[in-house]
Inverse folding.
């Protein structure tokens, strides 16, 4: 094996393999373990023959730095920027991004989709600032899964102002509210726990109710013996559009007095009453109602 050095590069068998000044590299570069590439200035990587948009590797003020010259930097090839990334300081990740440590967003976070969490244990959003502003052009929504709660409390003293809870109860055409062999039926929808305040109740028609000869179906809600104390909107569950919502006027009222909220010192049953026209409830072949109840646990 002959190796000749002609002053312009390293030749192996007369073929230029690694030019020392200029030229084109026609082979691979393999560094031994612990090997390095050293340059007195920035290192420019220009893949695909693009001399306008390329990677620059540099050490700036003792900080190793990678940036894009001519455009933003992209990791992955599934998409291009949809948010006007253009600077050499901008980074687009086209797939999932995992961060095992804390994430510091000094310039803020702009979220286009949803924010969710996965994995075991609890997660918390801690804001170390004096005032927190939630701003939106339409609605600000706090959502929680059924059975959980949203808690408001004063941080310094630890005084809790109560847990706000939302319960969803589903009733289909085969449930205990609609299984009577007759035109009327009733069932306990929800038992309000002791020492709570009922805030609001909403009923949502998920699927229209149907039965042969059925022309009307109404559902009201109240305490036992007070059929419409809580919910008495005008409705026809056989013809109202799916997703129609029926809401209370405040949390509770009856024929003698209006009420803003309902405090229950002891557990209290709220009962729904179904009234059909034209067919017995037991003949229903389709239909679903969802009840949404918001209350404050003191």
């Amino acid at each position: 094996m002959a190796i000749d050095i002609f002053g312009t590069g390293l030749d192996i068998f007369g073929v230029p393999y690694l030019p020392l000044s200029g030229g084109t590299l026609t082979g691979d570069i393999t560094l031994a373990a612990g090997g390095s590439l050293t340059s007195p200035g920035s290192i420019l990587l220009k893949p695909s023959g693009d001399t306008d948009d390329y990677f620059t590797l540099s050490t700036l003020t003792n900080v190793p730095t990678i940036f894009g010259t001519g455009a933003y930097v992209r990791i992955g090839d599934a998409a291009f920027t949809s948010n006007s990334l253009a600077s050499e300081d901008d980074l687009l990740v086209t797939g999932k991004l995992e961060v095992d440590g804390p994430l510091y967003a000094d310039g803020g976070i702009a979220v286009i989709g949803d924010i969710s969490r996965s994995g075991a244990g609890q997660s918390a959003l801690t804001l170390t600032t004096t005032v927190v502003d939630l701003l939106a052009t339409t609605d600000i929504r706090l959502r929680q899964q059924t059975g959980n709660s949203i808690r408001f409390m004063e941080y310094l003293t630890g005084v809790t102002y109560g847990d706000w809870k939302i319960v969803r109860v589903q009733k289909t055409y085969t449930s205990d509210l609609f299984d009577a062999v007759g035109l009327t039926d009733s069932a306990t929808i929800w038992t309000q726990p002791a020492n709570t305040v009922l805030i609001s109740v909403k009923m949502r028609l998920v699927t229209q109710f149907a039965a042969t000869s059925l022309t009307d179906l109404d559902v009201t809600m109240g305490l036992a013996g007070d059929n419409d104390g809580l919910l008495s909107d005008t409705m026809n569950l056989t013809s109202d559009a799916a997703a129609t919502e029926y809401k209370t006027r405040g949390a509770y009222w009856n024929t003698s007095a209006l009420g803003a909220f309902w405090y229950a010192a002891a557990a209290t049953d709220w009962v729904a009453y179904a009234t059909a026209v034209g067919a017995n409830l037991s003949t229903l072949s389709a239909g679903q109602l969802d009840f949404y109840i918001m209350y404050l646990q003191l």
User: Anything to note?
Assistant: Confidence is low (pLDDT under 50) at residues 1-9. The radius of gyration is 34 Å. Residues 166-297 form a domain with the Jelly Rolls fold (CATH 2.60.120). The longest strand covers residues 196-210.
